Every structure is written in C-alpha cells, then in structure tokens.
UniProtKB/TrEMBL annotation:
GO terms for cellular component: extracellular region. Belongs to the peptidase S8 family. The keyword ATP-binding does not apply. Keywords: Glycoprotein, Hydrolase, Protease, Serine protease, Signal. Its main location: secreted. Residues 154-641 form the Peptidase S8/S53 domain. This is Subtilisin-like protease SBT2.6. One of its GO terms (biological process) is proteolysis. The active site is at D163 (charge relay system), H237 (charge relay system), S599 (charge relay system). It comes from Oryza brachyantha. Residues 24-126 form the Inhibitor I9 domain. The gene is LOC102705354.
Amino acid sequence: MTGLQLACLLLIIVMQVVLGTHDVYIVTMEGDPVVSYRGGVEGFPATATDLDEDIDITSEAVTSYSLHLRMYHDKLLDSLFVEGTYDKLYSYHHLINGFAVHMSPLQAEFLKKAPGVKHVERDMKIEKLTTHTPQFLGLPTGVWPTGGGFDRAGEDVVIGFVDSGIYPQHPSFSAHKTDPYGPVPRYKGKCEMDPVTKRSFCNGKIVGAQHFAKAAIAAGAFNPDVDFASPLDGDGHGSHTAAIAAGNNGIPVRMHGHEFGKASGMAPRARIAVYKVLYRLFGGYVSDVVAAIDQAVQDGVDILNLSVGPNSPPTATRTTFLNPFDAALLSAVKAGVFVAQAAGNGGPFPKTLVSFSPWITTVAAGVDDRRYKNHLVLGNGKLLPGLGVSPATHENKSFNVISAADALLGSSATKYSALDCQRPELLNKRKVQGKILLCGYSFNYISGTASIKKVSETARSLGAAGFVVAVENSYPGTKFDPVPVSMPGILITDVSRTKDLIDYYNSSTIRDWAGRATTFQATAGIADGLAPTLYNSAPQVALFSSRGPDVKDFSFQDADVLKPDILAPGNLIWAAWAPNGTDEANYAGEGFAMVSGTSMAAPHIAGIAALIKQKNPKWSPSAIKSALMTTSNTLDKGSHPLRAQQYSESEIMTLTRATPFDYVNPKAALDPGLVLDATHQDYITFLCSIPDVEHSEVSNITGSSCNSSSKGQQRPYDLNIPSITISQLRGTQTVKRTVTSVAVETETYTVMARMSPEIALEVSPPALTVLPGASREIMATLTVRSVTGTYSFGEITMKGDRGHLVRIPVVAMGFK
C-alpha cells in the first residue's frame, strides 16, 4: 500500500470514529458471474455454455468459480480496509459479480477507485407495491384442460416469490389433501427450519424457503421482536401473492360464517419457492433483494414474481435500466427465468412506474367483473350507495341511528378520536345498544391503525344493530375497498351522500338546550352485501395502477419502451392471508383477505406464465412475454374498448378510454402462432443505443461490452419486443420486427395497420407465410402528419389463415 493510500485510510478511520455513519453499498466488479463465464481465468473452466442448456450449479466448475469470486471480494476488502471497520453482507456471484458491504461513505469513495471495481452504488429501499379471477380469465374451461386439468396445471414448474415470506400451514399451500408431490430434481433450493416449531417450511408444495435480511439488520431497521428472522410471513402480502399464482385449487374461502367461493391459484400444481425480503415495519432493501434473486436463479426457479419495487427511479446511473437490481434481472432472463414485476400503485398519474426495463414483464392492475356494493335505506326513503360485505340488518328491518358524537362518555374522550369508533370503552353502551352506530372516517384510516374491522368489533361489543362509517372530507388518492365483517355494516364514500345522511340525522334528532341529544328518531336499514355483482364493463384499468409512459432516466424523460406490458386482475382479489399478518388491519387474525394492488396483478401473470412454461418448456422468457402481450384482449366483456379509471378536474373518479394497457388472454397465449423473441445480446445492444449512456457504464453494470462499430446505428426502439414505441418521432422512421413461428403448421398471415390520424403508419409486406420454427421480418414506417404534443396510438395486426391473431401496439409522439 502506498503512503498516499495509507494516509487516506487513516483519515477514513478517524472520520469513522468521529461520525460513526455507515451505509450499505452494492459493488459490481470486473469479471463475469457464473451465468456468463466462458473461461479465461487461469485454473477455472467455463461455467456457461449454450443458452439452451441449464447450468449445473452442483458441478465442480461452478462451485470452484463461485468460491473464487467470493474469495476475491474478501481479499479486495481485506487489502483496503482495517478489519472491523466494514461488514461484507453478501457476495453476488451467479447473476452479477459483486458484493454488498456495510461501510462509511468515505470508505465507499475510496473503494470506487480500487482496481477491479466497476461501480459502487448506495443501497435503497423497496416497498410492497383468488376465488373468482380463474373463472374470469377462462382458466377452468379454456386452459387447465390442455395441461391435464386443474390437478396438473403448472405441474413441476417452480415459481419463486421475492416477497414477505409465507404462512406454510395455510390450506392453499398444503400438500396433504392433493395428489403427492414428487421431487423436482433440477431445483436446488434449501428449506430453512422454523426457529420456534423446529419444523421445515417446505412440504412438497413449498420446495424452498429462505430469508434475506443482512442489509436490513446492518441498516438498523430489523427488529427481531417484530420481524421474524425466518421465511414466516408476518405481513400477509407474501402469502397472498403466492396463493394467487400457485395456491391449491378448491380451497373454501370462509370468513365470519360465510363462504365467499373456493380459491385457486392460476397454476394450482406449480411449486412455490420463497425468498423473503420484505418485513413488517420498513419494507426491504435492494441489496437483500438482489441476494434473493441471485439465489433464486441459482436454485433453479422457472418463474420469478416480484410484487416489490424501488421507492423511486435509480439516481446513480444515467438511465433507469442500468442498476444492480435490473442487471440481476437481466441475467436472470439470460438464464431462462421469466420475471413478472408489479407496475406500482402510483396511478392514475403518468410516469409513476417502478418497473422500467424491457426484459421485465411489467404488470398493471385491472378491475375484474366482480364488485361488492351495498346500500343504506334511510327512514326518509333515500337510498345511499356504499361499500360493505356484510349481512343485512335483522329481518331486513330499520333501526334507530345514533352518532358516535352523541354516545361519548365524557368530553375528555374527544382527544382519543372516538368518533372513528375504534375504542368501545369511550362510548355509552346503553345508548348505542339496539341502534345503528354512525361513525366518522378519520385520517387515521389512511395513515394510522384505524380499520373497518375494529369498527365492527366496537359495534358488536356495544350491542349495536349495525354500523355506518361515513366519509365527510375528500381524501384524493384514497382507495376505498369493501371489508367483510360479521355484522351489518357499510362504508359511505361519496361525500355528497354523507351530507344527505348527516342532514337527515340532524333534522331527526331532538336535542336539549345544551345541544345534548335526547331522542333519536332517524332510522336506517342496511341491505345484504354478501353477494357480488358481475359487470360486463370489466376489465378496467384500476385507478391506483401506475401509468406510463416509461422513463429512461431520473429526469423523467420518456423512454422508447412501452410500459406497463400487460394488465391483469388486481382489484379486490381474494386469496390466502397470514393470520399474524399486519399489512391490512382489516384482516388481522384472518386466513383470507380481499385486497387490491399491482402486487396482486403480477402473480396472475406469473401463474399464467407457469402454464405456458409447462406446455412450452423450451420457450425463452421473451417468447413467453410476447405470447402474453400479442394475444391480449383490448375489449371488455361487453365487447367495448377497454376503459381506465381516472380523475376528473374536480377529483371525481371517471372513466376514459384506455391507452395500450392490455388484458391477458391465457387460452390464446398458450398458442400465439408467432412470437417476437429477444436475446441477451439484443438487450445489451438496446442499452448501448440509449443516448447519453456511456458504453463503459453498460459494461460496468452488466459485465457485457458494447459493439463500438455499431454506435449510432442502433436505436432503442429497434429492440425486438412485441410493441413499438417512439417517444420523439421526427419526420419518417422505419422500424423492423422479426416474428418467429411457434405453430405446428405453416400459416399465412395478412398484415394490417391502423393509427391515430396525427401519425401515418404503413407496414410491409401486406402478407407473409411462415413455416414452423421459421422467422420473417415486417417493416413499420411511421411519419409525422401533425404535431399535437401528445402520444398517438395504433397497432399492427397479423391475422393467420389457421386462426391465430397477433397484435403489436404502436405508440409515438410526433415532433417537428
């Protein structure tokens, strides 16, 4: 070590003592990871072969090269820093060559200049982003029979869940009431033991269970008294997503003495591999997620479900597509793993996505055809619509109404926000008994611990005939969901309807000279809300679902990539829940929950991808993605164009025509006719073609080099994906797409194009014949006719003479 290096090191140590600040950093190194190492290091034979061949992670070559990388990481850190001043958390060696380390910012700056270090990035946090949807998507009649029925749908396909863990005792994950599960020899994942019960988390249905929390512990966020140091789900989110994708078929959903149908995953015979990275109080950290992804692909999962995403676009690189998280997923795709990721819950506002890269299948959330609605009938004859999954008031009768404000025990109770009915001890039981309790909707429901479930418990303990929770103030962006409860109850979300209710109550309540209520004459009845209503207007893009366009950098410049990729059910989804889960206060202690989010949409796609993988085991992840996208529906069940939930200027929810956020059609995706495939090198070429991105940066993050001779010749929108997006179209541009036949017979396709009038779209050839396994090219030419400052939408359709229909969305914004 030189004198200058020693001086710098001493300065670092002094600063550490003075400041005591440490962060977690993700470091990428020179040299290939296992998945792409083809030899070159003396004494270590190649680990990667043809992409069609799986890497044998138990081979001596893989084991020795992995150990070599880990030892190199240790040696580098030992040579630079004093032992005890840093803590290496993970060595990444399968998908990326690098490590995660807990150290001071000064040490990180010093590390950036060390030989062999390519990139150093401070860790960031990530966050969380069914009984009916299998029928809604046509799985029981149109898809499961092709795979041998529900009892074979997804057989031996392994889906990895990077989430909050699992509740293994849930019947959705049981291996006892199904045909025996045999081993999956190619899956090498391990099963942790429950530290309390000393039993394995695995049972045949669950084939792997691990947890990753080293970064969370180093950051001081992990609380062992609250967060389980095991794969056990203490949140509920992980169990819910796993059940949606791969839960057992025919599991009764029972709650409060009522059965809401029978639950099933999309691929009920698929296996579940758990990689816990999310925890109750804080979410998780990217370095733990990257470790989980690295391990999952090394273990041999076929599908990865990520119902998680970063809090914001990455800032350490010039583009959203280049960071350790997306680089790990790129290597996962290279290894043959299909990745479904939730789009995010920042809608309906544009550019709110948390999933950016073209190699990931980004899933938006749709509203399916099942809605739970109810109504309150007032004594003056008015009928007020609301939300509530509950029985009707006794014998469908009406009862007197009492406001919580008129049932308070003492004036001091107001400091406890008693009006939201969370604390029964603050209300007069004698007054409430036999009446319908009227409660307010406070901000504590949004940012605190208030819940409709607790209101129900309060009303029951006071002997009420039912309850009403009324929203008096507008809370923009608030997502109101119906909550199953055991007694009559309803949530009134329309502020104008709440005013009608309060006006009626006040005019019907007699008060003394001091304003105290003496006689309650307002009456109401709550209808039966247990049965759902089915709508032909489904699907719709859910209000909360994040919207495109995709962004290519932290300044939110538009990218030449269409995102989200696909729409799937994500609103009011019934599925398994962890009884000790804390994610939704309304479902504390329950075994099932009905919740919403793009987190629920992604596992629908992961499960359907497992069905496609089962039928077509050699298909690449990009081929599976293409099959899902090119066959998706653009019409609702009433044969009308898809619509999207949106805000009007007055912040009232309205419906507008959906832009290319499309819906999945599982039956067609199993047999798409043609696919648009992309290789790992295609994705590298895409990264190298992004303006302002240095080729060295691509190499530093991905480990793959750009072809300098092709600089300027390739454009981002030339990537062979099943959509065309040009964010800045000037004059005329021609784009090529290559389609490959996956059909068993030769087919002739008629090629057609349509586009909004601002952009001219021409496609050639007008027809083409494709032999099984063969590829053909189509050329799309886009020309600006008028500049509007907004996106124009269109599509290319290819209609085959054997019944296949392939659809490629086209999106462009014209500039002068």
